[in-house]
Amino acid sequence: MKKFLKSFGFAIEGILEFFFHERNALIQLAIAIIAIILGAVFKISPGQWLAILFFIALVLSLEMINSAIEKLCDMVSKDFHPGIKRIKDIVAGAVLLASVFSLIAGMIIFIPKIIQLINQGK
Fold this sequence. Notes:
By secondary structure, the chain is an all-alpha fold. The chain is built from 4 helices and no strands.
């Protein structure tokens, strides 16, 4: 149990490191908070909550992996290296791909609710 708690502590340190030292972390966190607020305001369904929370976790996790891989690559070589560039491009692409699909899911969930709200005001 002691080893588990120690590992848990290291994971928390990693999360805090990410949010306090990575610019993209705060951007992604702000977007996540907006999505959660919109979900609460529009009273989305449990299934829609699962989708929103899944995409938040996916994007934040991939952003953390991207940051870690970039730091590792920078430790390997500070100089330009085409192989390292490819690695960084691929992990950045993974974050972009998840972000685009998150945006699409958010649009599918929230645009009809926004349109309904606008139509109620007319």
